[in-house]
Amino acid sequence: MSTRITNREVARIFATVADLLQLKGENIHRVLAYRRAAETVADLPRDLYAVRDEGTLTDLPYIGATLAEKIEELLETGELDFFNRLAEEVPIGLVEVMDVPGMGPKRAAQFWQELGITSIDALREAAEAGKLRELPGMGEKSEANILQGIELLSRRTDRLLLGDALPLATGLLDRLLEATGETQGEVAGSLRRRRPTIGDVDLLIASENPEPIMDAFAGMPEVASIHGKGSTKTSVELHSGQQVDLRVLPPDRWGTLLVYFTGSADHNVHLRELALKQGLSLNEHAFTPVAGDGPEILCATEEAVYAQLGMAWIPPELREDTGEIEAALAGTLPDLITLDDMRGDLQCHTTWSDGKTTVLEMAQAAQALGYDYLLITDHSHGLGIVQGLTLDDIDGQRAEIDAANEALAGQITVLHGVEVEIKADGALDYNDETLAKFDIVQASLHVSLRQPREQVTARMVNAIRNPYVRIIGHPRGLLLGEREPADLDMDAVFEAAREHDVALEINANPHRLDLDGPHARRAVELGVKLTISTDAHRPAEFHNMPYGVATARRGWVTASSVVNTWPLQDVLAWAKGRR
């Protein structure tokens, strides 16, 4: 038998088969079959060999008899004959070419068939030599976009999105605590600081008896391999390929453990400098006299660590050494916004554009979360890919919203809004007479994000100046790991938003988190209002709100700066203020 193959490798092979089939122009349903199988295997928390041995491969989602046979072949031989035959027909390097942002299978196949391009290096060379622009459907601008996409691809990493990493980490930790009977545990590192993307996952547990915890951790079904196992640290790789580290120290050292492994590195260096001024060294175990002439100072809580250094506890989201230590020493830390402060959601979508459920169903889901109001913001019709609201649709949607409000009988108020497109020429998708029909108008950039700075900034500022626009959605157009933000002059955007009293959105979708923390902080410092909204397209996505709140906290944002922490009457009064 060949070397034991991992879940991750099986998923990669299936995903590559899907890409090769797509490059060949095969039936889309066949492509999707392999794509969904790849996702099933990638997300599987158990070893495929164990599932195979139980005879339950076909019980997995999207795994029928044919795909189960191919999994069996991979588990037994480490290879897939079907994959090898496909790779002889279609150059495997084209799969990487398809990873270039904006590159589809038809375009990749065209470059291969007409120019013999089968790698990213060859694609770059052809673009730099001006060869692509001569092909049908191409031009100088398309060629430049491809070069920009190659540059973006080179900067991609294997980091997890916050929205993927946090459920993974908390799920592992909760089950580990339950299995061992321990009660004190926490996720740490950049995940606890709620950075938008995460590298390795760090878990911490306080216990006097670490060995059973380490055994339970190493034996979890998600674990594919153990990289190291000791009395205070165990490091594993999951079947997904994700590395997870677990550290265990006694409860009387919990405070220093948690501070140290939460970070950031710069924050910790600053804390150690303060400790040295007291004649102490600081690490994950304790404060220790530098001269070695006294006992350790143990800290069972983080509050005790910061108190020893003469300051209040600092929220993890702020620990980036960007002034939080000075503020803590001066007693001027902000009272950060919390999830409990949120009274409504000011961006969501329904079946009137690209949402998946009705107005009433979205409103009922928002009401179940305790919100007082919900703004429906389906796309305007100009964003053709989502089949948004035509002019004839607007009154019909208003009638549906009125019916939902009647059915909900005051439990929550549904507001009629729109996400109006800021078009490539800077105009809005609707005229002012049409915009006046909505309770609140949000404007967003979705197209022509690669325009030069002056042009894309002028588009944004023009939208902000419109008297009916009250919110700018996901202002920079960022998609984490997929699309760079628009090259906006953010100082000009902030100044226009402040002058015209337009709020900028922190979009809580984990793929966006835009505005990010540093930009949100700058906006608030300049007197700009914010909103935090989920951009939900289905009820489950309302649960992304904590990611938006965490992003705001990273930006030192307080509740008073966020419009949808206000009572409904204040929101409506503000919304009508410029008309």
Question: Tags for this entry?
Answer:
5-stranded mixed β-sheet; Beta Polymerase, domain 2; Beta Polymerase, domain 3; alpha/beta; DNA polymerase, domain 1; 579 residues; 24 helices; 16 strands
Radius of gyration: 27 Å
Number of strands: 16
Tell me, briefly, the overall form: globular
What is the name of the CATH architecture of the largest domain? Alpha-Beta Barrel
CATH fourth-tier homologous superfamily of the largest domain: Metal-dependent hydrolases
Q: Give the uncertain stretches in residue-range form.
A: none
CATH class of the largest domain: Alpha Beta
Q: What is the CATH topology descriptor of the largest domain?
A: TIM Barrel
In whole angstroms, the N-to-C terminal distance is: 74 Å
Q: What's the domain count?
A: 4
How many helix segments? 24
Major β-sheet profile: 7 strands, parallel
